[in-house]
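Ticket opened by: R.M.
Priority: normal
Category: complex prediction / small molecule

The reporter submitted a protein together with alpha-L-rhamnopyranose and asked that the result be attached to this ticket for the collaborator who will pick it up next week. Submitted input follows.
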Amino acid sequence: MKKQFKSVLAVALVAALTSPAMAADKIAFVVKSLGNGFFDAANQGAQEAAKELKNIEVIYTGPAKATAEGQIEIVNALIAQKVSAIVISANDPDALAPSLKRAMERGIKVISFDSGVRKDGRMMQLNPSSNPLIGEKLVKMTQQAIGSTGEVAILSATAQATNQNIWIDEAKKVLAQPAYKGLKLVSVVYGDDQTDKSYREAQGLFKSYPNLKAIIAPTTVGVAAAAKAEQDEKKVGAIFVTGLGLPSEMAGHVKSGAVKSFAIWNPIDLGYSSIYAVSQFISGKVTGKPGEKVSLGRVGTVTLDANGEAAMSEPFTYDATNVEKFAKFF
Ligand code: RAM
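Result attached by the on-call engineer:
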């Protein structure tokens, strides 16, 4: 009898030791919309961070279209699921705030990355790069492509996108400088980060502005669609497209001459860093106070500013000399 009891105890002990010590923390990685190569690459980095940090499960989710309403529905469902954290690239800085506040009241850690939520709706915003630098880069690439004079249009993502609106404002500030006075911004249109709508908006710009020299698209979806429209409409040489794009989606357009250069940061690193950052909110190491240092694992460390924001590295420029090499990665 005694022996039997002992062996039962031993079996129980082995079972306790071999079962996972803790349930994994569920982190929802909520993107603007699914089917966007930029976010797929970011998710690759997010999954890598989860593996490295251990005991974390990253749930990749987002609406079919880049709308705040779609994201609010998802956030409400995540609150009910009692996830540990939400990492979001927001389709609107304000509309998401009430649901995200509710999530935080229930103990869910919330940070935004890429496209931010206003300050009271998140604990931190991770910017991929400095916003003024991105604005400047967009204008400089345009000038390099077309020279110092000509009509320019912007083809953006959605009209409410936090990140694109900030970058457009920064680009406008640069365009207002004397060095760029010959570049005339004639229109800002929105392709909603949908390929077909962006394509149609680019065609509309060609029609409405026969003297158009350049389209600046600060969205990976928009820039690829505009370059394709430019090629299809036989505008190569007359109009140039530039903006923020993925080398894997842009290599062909650089080759065709539709695009001379474009820029982007590493989306894999951005996704990785976002998960790394939020893991420190989960563990309590970081609370979101200005001046706090947040480790981004292999990417480095950032410091939160007065707005609870931090920025990663400078955007990198791609052209015919290097685009093929990076097309394998993202
Ligand atoms: C699109 C999205 C994303 C943005 C990139 C550059 O994929 O709008 O938010 O950061 O472009």
